[in-house]
Design brief:
Shape of chain A: globular
Mean pLDDT of chain A: 84
Number of strands of chain A: 2
CATH class of the domain at 63-232 and 246-257 in chain B: Mainly Alpha
Helix content of chain A: over 70%
CATH topology of chain A: MetI-like fold
Number of helices of chain B: 12
Largest sheet of chain B: none
Oligomer: heterodimer
Number of domains of chain A: 1
Number of strands of chain B: 0
Order of helices and strands of chain A: HEEHHHHHHHHHHH
Radius of gyration of chain A: 22 Å
Distance between the termini of chain B: 19 Å
Number of helices of chain A: 12
Strand order of the largest sheet of chain A: 1-2
Strand content of chain A: under 5%
CATH architecture of chain A: Orthogonal Bundle
Shape of chain B: globular
Order of helices and strands of chain B: HHHHHHHHHHHH
Distance between the termini of chain A: 19 Å
Low-confidence stretches of chain A: none
Structural class of chain A: mainly alpha
CATH architecture of the domain at 63-232 and 246-257 in chain B: Orthogonal Bundle
């Protein structure tokens, strides 16, 4: 407990503190005087705004795609499949999660390659490297994080409720909208927090398949690599603020218990 | 439940497509590792095991693998001790700031890895600690603790508190109760959490990049550093294939450990 308190909160505090420092232009050393230069730059430089908006857009797109893919999968697992199939499917969804993140991103790089990749050779089409590829690969990577909470939520949903809805004359679509969705909303929110947060900070996938696209993570990494820790720290505060806002909004739904 | 035959089929096909989506990239890598070509050209011109022979003889990936295992073992050990104690404390005792602590424990998984990485890096710099093997372990342990905590507390919440009371009534002190009553009951959840913590640490690259010293290279870092080098591609393919095959092990183990096929990932065990 103390570990988290000291190390985690301590480091978040020093993140904030560092974001208020600057670096000396000549020596590259930290100048430990507190200024708001970095934040001023963040707020005035249009590049930062574009990058932030693009990253939020990517994270939202990934979350949306994962939701669309996860819902039928989770519903089939929880409500249609037989016991044995359900178990096998659960393993099948979890297995890719254990396979290395990097290996998966790498294999997409291999497949997306516009000159000799598997997609171009098989379908004569590949989105190439860029924002589209980034969204696709991130959606692939985080899909289990969306599917598993929804599956868990659906499993807790009593079948009798679905039957009752059907008995009362509701069709599949109506039952889904008026019964299933409200009941599993907390699970969806929990899954969405995962996919959104994971996409928000990612820079590895962007480097591997993103081409020239820049995201928040990239810029932080670039500043960090250039030795400008204060600037990197200031920009790292942006996803923190976004996530805190998201979590505060979400806390009211009680979905935090499902994380 | 009442579902028309057609909607069942739609769901079945959708599920099948999602599974294809999930597995094709993994299969592509497995096939490519046996390609005779020097690149990842598809389809492979012919199949051969030459790159497997060469890759298994290389020392770079092997050293990186060993580093990853050491870091993951150390971080998991710390996480198991501290994570289970923390969950026990939060679940069994009421104290000031208990709710804050629960929120605090969600933070490391709710915040993006790069934030954790930069924050830890800033903290180490401020504290004047040189980056090295130890800082890497501390960083990994920080998110591993959360995983163990979540698994154990999910189990503890399910246990009836009167088991502890019964133990106390029979004259056991707090330590004995933990040792003989609580621990055996949470053991499988603890193991599942430890397994997940190990896997997360083994796979981690973002926090690693920001907290490892210059000379240290974990397996993910090795893959990342080499995938952009054309003449290393065959080796990267083989290493990637090995990692994919290895990922079956934890799934199998967690299957054995608990009836929960997700390995406790959803922190949901009341089924």
């Amino acid at each position: 407990m103390l570990w988290l308190l000291v190390i985690y909160l301590g480091s978040l505090a020093s993140l904030l503190l560092t974001s208020l420092y600057t670096t000396n232009d000549f020596t590259g050393n930290l100048v430990k005087t507190i200024t708001f230069t970095n934040y001023h730059e963040l707020l005035t430089d249009p590049t930062f705004r574009i990058v932030t908006l693009r990253t939020i857009g990517i994270a939202l797109a990934v979350t949306g795609i994962d939701l669309v893919l996860a819902l039928p999968l989770a519903f089939f697992m929880a409500k249609v499949a037989s016991r044995r199939t359900r178990r096998a499917l659960a393993v099948a969804v979890v297995l890719p999660l254990w396979a290395s993140y990097l290996v998966k991103a790498y294999s997409w790089r291999v497949m997306l390659d516009p000159s000799a990749g598997a997609l171009v050779q098989t379908f004569h089409f590949s989105p190439g490297f860029g924002v589209t590829a980034t969204v696709l690969v991130l959606a692939y990577l985080w899909l289990p994080y969306m599917a598993l909470p929804i599956y868990a939520g659906l499993e807790k949903l009593p079948n009798s409720l679905l039957d009752a809805s059907g008995d009362l004359g509701a069709g599949a679509g109506r039952t889904f909208r008026s019964v299933v969705l409200p009941m599993i909303a907390p699970s969806i929110v929990a899954g969405a927090i995962f996919t959104f947060s994971l996409s928000l900070g990612d820079y590895i996938t962007v480097q591997i398949v993103g081409g020239k696209a820049q995201t928040i993570g990239n810029v932080i990494y670039r500043d960090f690599g250039a030795g400008n820790l204060p600037s990197a720290a200031a920009f790292a505060v942006v996803p923190v603020v976004i996530m805190v806002v998201v979590l505060l909004v979400v806390r009211r739904t009680g979905a935090l218990e499902n994380l | 439940m009442l579902l028309s035959g057609r909607s069942r089929w739609v769901l079945r096909i959708a599920t099948g497509l999602v599974l294809v989506f999930l597995y094709v990239p993994l299969l592509v890598i497995l096939v490519l590792s046996f390609s005779s070509a020097r690149t990842y050209i598809w389809p492979p011109p012919s199949l051969s095991t030459i790159w497997w022979h060469r890759a298994l003889g290389e020392s770079g990936p092997r050293a990186a693998l060993w580093t990853s295992v050491k870091v993951a073992l150390a971080a998991t050990t710390i996480a198991v001790v501290l994570g289970s104690l923390a969950s026990y404390g939060v679940q069994r005792f009421r104290f000031f700031g208990r709710n804050t602590v629960s929120v605090l424990l969600v933070l490391p998984i709710a915040l993006p890895g790069i934030v954790t990485g930069v924050a830890l890096n800033a903290a180490f710099q401020q504290a004047g600690v040189a980056l090295g093997f130890l800082t890497l372990i501390v960083a990994h342990a920080t998110f591993c603790i959360v995983v163990v905590f979540n698994n154990v507390i999910a189990r503890l919440r399910r246990l009836a508190p009167n088991v502890d009371e019964a133990s106390a009534d029979l004259g056991a002190d707090l330590f004995q109760t933990f040792r003989y009553v609580t621990f055996p009951l949470v053991r499988s959840a603890l193991l599942a959490g430890a397994l997940l913590a190990f896997a997360l640490s083994f796979d981690e690259i973002v926090v690693t990049t920001f907290t490892a010293g210059a000379g240290i290279q974990t397996l993910p870092q090795w893959i990342f550093n080499n995938m952009f080098r054309p003449n290393q591609l065959p080796t990267v393919n083989v290493v990637a294939a090995v990692v994919i095959v290895l990922s079956i092990v934890p799934v199998y183990v967690s299957q054995r450990l608990s009836a929960d096929p997700t390995g406790g990932l959803t922190a949901d065990e009341d089924r």
